[in-house]
Specification:
By secondary structure, this protein is of the alpha/beta class. The chain has 13 helices and 10 strands.
Length: 311
């Protein structure tokens, strides 16, 4: 819908990805959040342009409804969106915003920009996401972006929930065969997957409902087994934490950032896995970085409001 009003005192911040889209309606003056709206995925590379733009529009509608306000053209909007790294994607979003009179000023960037805005003092530094997948982003003090990782679950995703769980499953299979030492992972994963015995991993994974997302959901149990001292679980977790740190360190070095720098962390593995996070940060130091300060960002869309208010 095209708004009939203008609200120079309001801004919008959006965080859109392959799972969901979140919009915050906030005060321009002090950033107070007035309304929050959620909708489906808006990654135009994954769901298509029409579906992606529809999700963006629905999230804005719902943010205004949550605030009890009529939809209006706001002063500024900042969108952090997955899938718009190329100029073509940026043009699509800008064109949509202009047609619908979303805001007087529009700022569009990759979703990692939100994490840096929300989790670093001045919007530059290292941002690492480890959820179902993983990726490391950097931004220099003068605004130059860079990245490392993000190759997806077949080619990369080191240190992610999926890779931790998948390697734990592999270790459990080898342990069951007697190739690797006995491990609680065998019994634990059989129980978590509601199976009768370890050989049932085969039909469950290859012919059942255990897709990438479902397998990633096994990660908390693997982290718990590692925290309890299971040798195979510890080996899996420490290896993945180190590989994630290797990816992050390369992003820093390749883009010429200083070794001492702010770090923003997001994604369920890093947010909720305290011991895993400790291992990851220790590995960063081993690779020559000095992360300071380190901030956890559980709600990156807050960074979009920061960017919208900055203009």
């Amino acid at each position: 819908m095209i708004p009939q009003y203008r609200r120079h005192d309001l801004v919008l911040g959006l965080d859109g990805g392959g799972t969901s889209t979140i919009a915050l309606l906030a005060s321009f003056d002090d950033g107070t959040v007035l309304g929050r709206g959620t909708a489906g995925p808006s990654n135009i590379q994954a769901v298509g342009v029409e579906a992606g733009l529809k999700a963006l529009d629905e999230s804005i509608d719902r943010a205004f409804a949550s605030a009890g306000l009529p939809r209006a053209e706001v002063r500024r909007i900042a969108l952090g969106l997955a899938g718009i790294d190329r100029e073509e994607g940026l043009d699509i979003i800008r064109g949509w915003a202009a047609r619908l009179h979303i805001a007087e000023s529009v700022r569009v960037a990759n979703d990692a920009t939100l994490l840096l805005a929300a989790g670093t003092p001045e919007g530059w530094g290292l941002a690492v996401i480890a959820g179902t997948g993983s990726i490391a982003f950097v931004q220099t003090p003068d605004g130059k972006p860079g990245r490392c990782g993000g190759w997806g679950y077949l080619l990369g995703d080191e240190g992610s929930a999926y890779m931790i769980a998948l390697n734990a499953l592999r270790a459990a299979c080898r342990s069951f065969d007697g190739v690797l030492p006995p491990s609680i992972l065998v019994e634990q994963l059989v129980a978590k997957m509601a199976l009768k015995e370890a050989p049932d991993f085969i039909p469950a994974v290859y012919r059942g409902g255990w897709d990438r997302t479902a397998i990633a959901g096994l990660c908390p149990g693997v982290l718990e087994a590692a925290d309890g001292g299971d040798a195979l679980a510890v080996e899996v977790v420490e290896r993945e934490a180190r590989e994630l740190a290797r990816t992050a360190a390369r992003a820093v070095v390749a883009n010429g950032l200083p070794s001492s720098l702010p770090v923003a962390l997001s994604g369920g593995v890093l947010i909720h896995g305290a011991n895993y996070r400790t291992k990851f940060l220790a590995a960063l130091c081993e690779f020559g970085l000095a992360p300071n300060p380190v901030r956890l960002v559980d709600d990156p869309v807050v960074g979009a409001v920061v960017l919208a208010r900055r203009g």
